[in-house]
Each structure stands twice: as C-alpha cells, then as structure tokens.
Design goal:
- 50% of the residues lie in helices and 13% in strands.
- The protein has 2 domains: 84 residues, Lyase 2-enoyl-coa Hydratase, Chain  A, domain 2 (Orthogonal Bundle); 219 residues, 2-enoyl-CoA Hydratase, Chain A, domain 1 (Alpha-Beta Complex), CATH 3.90.226.
- Strand 2, helix 3 and strand 3 form a beta-alpha-beta unit.
- It contains 13 helices and 9 strands.
- The protein has a 6-stranded mixed sheet, with helices on both faces. Strands 5-7-8 form a 3-stranded mixed sheet.
- It is an alpha/beta fold and 308 residues long.
- The two termini are 32 Å apart.
- It is globular, with a radius of gyration of 22 Å.
- The longest helix has 25 residues.
- The structure holds ligand LTDHYY67.
- Ligand LTDHYY67 binds next to helix 4, helix 5 and strand 5.
- The site of ligand LTDHYY67 has 23 residues, from helix 4, helix 5 and strand 5.
- Belongs to the enoyl-CoA hydratase/isomerase family.
- One of its GO terms (biological process) is fatty acid metabolic process.
- One of its GO terms (molecular function) is delta(3,5)-delta(2,4)-dienoyl-CoA isomerase activity.
- It comes from Amphimedon queenslandica.
Length: 308
C-alpha cells in the first residue's frame, strides 16, 4: 500500500471532517516563565523548561518556601503549553542537602503546640506532612516528563525528589544518601514508597535505608536508580537538555498519555492497566498528532505538533 493510501485511510478512520484540517497553533510564541525565591526557571530549548534548585549557599537545602514553590511551579508547568519536558537540576556545588534542618526545626520543635495531642497531631499532618509529600508527588503527577540531573550530594529529601522524576541522570562525582535515620526520621515523603519499585531489590533498599550509608554514582547506575552517568556537571546538563529536547519534539499527546499510563501501570495489574490504556486511547487515537506522526515517518520529515 502506498504512503498516500495509508494516510488517507488513517485519516478517514480516525478523524471527523471537522478536525481533519490541522489547526496549527501559534508555535514559537513564548510566555514569561514564573519567578520564585528558591527555584530558577529558564528555557534552554524550545518547549523545554529547566527548573534549578537555587539556594547554592545552603546546598539547595529544602525549606518551607521551597516545598510551597515546588507545588506552585509544577502546577504552572503542567498547564503551560510551551512546556513539553522538564530538566530538574541543582545550582552550585550539589544537587541538594535534603531537608533544611534549621528551617524544619522551627516546625518540629515549635513552642506554639496545642495542648491537646490529638489536635496537634491532626494539624501537623494537615499543615506539614501532607503538603511536604505533595511537593514531591507533584513532580510525578505533572504530565510533562521530568529528567533530573543530579550532581555532588543528593541527600535525604533529595532521594525523595529524584524518585518522583521520570528519568534520573547523574555526574560521576555524585553521592547519594538516604540519611533520615541519622536524624531520627523515617523517610516519609516518597523514598520508602517509590525506591523499592525503582531498584527492585528490597534487600539493598533496606540496607541503604537502615544504615544511611553513602553510595556512589557507579552503585546508583548498577542498582538502576540512574540510567546514565556523565563525567561532570556540564556534560550532564548538556545531555539532560538534549534528551528533554528530543522528548519535546514528539507528539505531546503521545508523550503525556504515555507518562499517565506508565504511572498507572506501576501501581495496578496488567489487566487493569490495559483497560485504562484502552479508555485513554479511545479518545487519544483521534488526535491529529497520529496522522502527523505517521505522515512524518512515511515521508521522512520531522512533524510539527501544535500546542497541548
Ligand atoms: C517532613 C519531612 C520532609 C523531608 C525530610 C527529609 C529528611 C532529610 O532530608 S534528612 C537529611 C538532612 N540533610 C543533612 O543532614 C545534610 C547535611 N549537609 C551535609 O551533609 C553537607 O552540607 C553536604 C550536603 C554533604 C554538602 O557539604 P559541603 O559542600 O561541604 O557544604 P557545607 O559546608 O557542609 O554546607 C554549606 C552550607 O550549607 C548549610 N547546609 C548544608 N546542609 C544543610 C541542611 N540540610 N540544612 C540546613 N543547612 C544546610 C551548611 O550549614 C553550610 O552553611 P554555613 O553557614 O556556610 O556554614
């Protein structure tokens, strides 16, 4: 069958006449990126946003402002049609030193505690623990793929954060540490929940959680926590941006529906996940992106997808 006949039959099967004519949107026009105190946003390539943790003098330790701004930032990027993929990195010497211990102390040891322990516990859960969890989970829930580029130290809350990302890359100087037990905490904003599913070796995860020993980039790649290691930070960022740009060149419908379904499949049976996928695709296969992508493949041209 000729390329033209394949395209013509695809078009008839999938598109009502009203959407067969492609309505290219205003690609190229850019919105100003939001500004934050603890995060610095830039756009190194079209449709790619780099979010940099930006308290280098504190090794990007995570304070209350950071936790709040992460939620605001990822909600904004989730809606931003100029953003199709995200690179998350850390400014300065290290990716992150985890929880800002000075800042957290003011919440953990506050003198404003209520006398009733039940009410105190309830408020603590609602106003501290749950929002902190949300500020990590918002990365996983964001429909745009997030590539994290880790260098230097990645400690405590840093592991919570990277395990919520889609793709993890690091530089060879990186060390990782699930440090919570050393400060009398159980890691409670994602590491215990997500890391076993990523690493797949319960024995190793438990060793790292219970001992808080540091592990290297070599060990991280061997345990499949990261997929690639680069010689230094510049090479790491360059590779992360290149990968993000490649993702951003694909159909945003296909990429985002893939992320949603990969997340769903991780937590459900194969049967449930296939059912979920079919329900998504009964709508998404009607997207103009399918025709454009197939056309591009057959005609050996790079398709341009309109904004989502
Ligand atoms: C609901 C709870 C939610 C989340 C819970 C998460 C739990 C955790 O994250 S546990 C882990 C807590 N983090 C740490 O214990 C790490 C402590 N820091 C370090 O080990 C080191 O700083 C380093 C990350 C290995 C980096 O070393 P280096 O490059 O030599 O820098 P330093 O000179 O040590 O630090 C520079 C500067 O930053 C301050 N700082 C570092 N980490 C933190 C931190 N976690 N909180 C607050 N401040 C931090 C450090 O004190 C230095 O400040 P100066 O004023 O310049 O001395």
């Amino acid at each position: 069958m000729s390329a033209t006949r394949i395209l013509s039959s695809l078009s008839k099967v999938f598109y009502p006449a009203s959407i067969r004519v492609s309505a290219m949107s205003t690609a190229g026009e850019t919105n100003a990126l939001p500004e934050y105190e603890t995060l610095s946003l830039s756009s190194p390539q079209e449709y790619v946003v780099q979010v940099e943790l930006n308290r280098p003098e504190r090794r990007n330790a995570m304070n209350k402002t950071f936790f709040r701004e992460m939620i605001e930032c990822f909600a904004a990027l989730n809606k931003d049609s100029n953003c199709r993929s995200i690179v998350l990195s850390g400014a300065g010497k290290s990716f992150t030193a985890g929880l800002d211990l000075n800042d957290a102390a003011s919440d953990l040891f506050s003198s404003e505690h209520q006398s009733d322990p039940g009410r105190q516990a309830f408020n603590f859960r609602e106003n501290f623990l749950m929002p902190y969890q949300q500020s990590i989970t918002c990365v996983e829930k964001c429909k745009k793929p997030v590539i994290v580029a880790v260098h230097g130290a990645c400690v405590g809350g840093g592991i919570d954060l990277i395990t919520a990302c889609d793709i993890r890359l690091c530089s060879s100087d990186t060390f990782f540490q699930i440090k919570e037990v050393d400060i009398g905490l159980a890691a409670d904003i994602g590491t215990l929940q997500r890391l076993p599913k990523i690493v797949g070796c319960e024995s190793l995860v438990r060793e790292l959680v219970f001992t808080a020993r540091k592990f290297s980039s070599e060990e991280a790649v061997a345990m499949k926590l990261v997929s690639h290691v680069y010689p230094d930070r510049p090479a790491l960022i360059e590779a992360a941006v290149k990968m993000a740009s490649l993702i951003a060149s694909k159909s945003p419908v296909a990429v985002q529906v893939s992320k949603i379904n990969l997340n769903y499949s991780r937590d459900h049976t194969v049967d449930e996940s296939l059912d979920y996928m079919a329900t998504w695709n009964m709508c998404m296969l009607q997207s103009e992106d399918l025709l454009k992508a197939v056309q591009g493949q057959l005609q050996k041209e790079t398709p341009k997808f309109s904004k989502l």
